[in-house]
Amino acid sequence: MKEKKISQAVIKRLPKYYSCLRHLEEDNVAKISSSEIGKILDITPSQVRQDLCNFGGFGQQGYGYDVSKLKETIATILGLDKQYSLIIIGAGNIGRALLGYTGFKKHGFEVKAAFDVKTDNLKYDGIEVRHMDELAEYIRTHQVDIAVIATQKTVAQDVADEVIACGVKSIWNFAPIDLNVPKSVIVENISMTESLLVLSYRMNELE
Amino acid sequence: MKEKKISQAVIKRLPKYYSCLRHLEEDNVAKISSSEIGKILDITPSQVRQDLCNFGGFGQQGYGYDVSKLKETIATILGLDKQYSLIIIGAGNIGRALLGYTGFKKHGFEVKAAFDVKTDNLKYDGIEVRHMDELAEYIRTHQVDIAVIATQKTVAQDVADEVIACGVKSIWNFAPIDLNVPKSVIVENISMTESLLVLSYRMNELE
DNA sequence: TAGATTGTTAATCGATTAACAATC
DNA sequence: TAGATTGTTAATCGATTAACAATC
Q1: Per-residue pLDDT for B1 more than 60?
Q2: CB A188 to CB B196 under 8 A?
Q3: Which end of chain A is more exposed for a tag (fewer CB within 10 A), N or C?
Q4: CA of A70 vs C1' of C8, distance in Å?
């Protein structure tokens, strides 16, 4: 790894390439050119080639790219050849939405447990919501690759501190707050508020 | 409006400035300098000044920025001085999470109705889920500023087509699909899958 | 072989950072 | 006034696009 620094912009496009290639494969398209990919994703062919070239040349001059092979390669680059164990902290609306969402599993992300300050002994999609008191013990005794923070924003930082103290290295954060974490911990945010405000800006910007 | 084209990068930072200023105001901070803002948001003072300067100079040389005034100005730029009516289409987990989330209301975004293919006559946070059949009629007879698409991805494009046909100009899309819309319609996506794949990439990139 | 299309270098464009005069 | 800090221009950096030789 680490042949060359890949820019943030390129990384953000990788899931788009991946999703596009999955669709093409489903439609039994065997090969595709950079200009066709560009047309689908609304970027220049040049950028497609430049992006893919970052990871080595998997195209064939005069032919294009083999859809299945390229899809697999990008899956590997994205780490989708591995399995990840997730736990969800906060079983409110968002937490339960994530529990119910089956779409992640096919990419190798499996929700193993959920925690909340109040438990009702109900199972959501086969997963019982445990009490927060059990969180630390759970992490110590199970493999937890990603902790999903879906709590109120008031406790999000405390929860982050706790899971990090227990050894969790990656956080997927849905709380509307910028978490403070050591550099070794990876945080990826879903910020609905920011997205909504950008939408609001764009609604007012036109004309 | 439209004095100068504001770049996407600047627009994405506006919500961050806004949130930062709200916190400062809560803490009764009266004035702040570009370097202090930069320190909080982890960007250079230069960039802060450059960004704010896009919208006109609201600072005072030798002093800094008035927190409340700047907060209000950015709120106006973001269009937060207005009220918006939202409808949610798809009352599954994500739809209900959005129904339950009260955080948007204080920025002027109010959920007025929700629709789904199956209705249970239950109210979620005071809002009854109507049948999809009523969607078109509802939009024609009510002001709808933003349609939130929280359906399965298989029907998301159809729903988008329908609300656009009824005159909706802005869509907040939670379905994992790139919607095809006329240029006059604004779409803002929340893409959990893309976010998760970026997280996955970053987990594998280190070392 | 001729045509097509990649991989990659060079050119362009835009965004970030630095510098500093203006001024509070 | 002196010190501080903005607004803004210029310099730098990085990302996108164009061009084209390599080659399938």
Answers
A1: no
A2: yes
A3: C
A4: 19
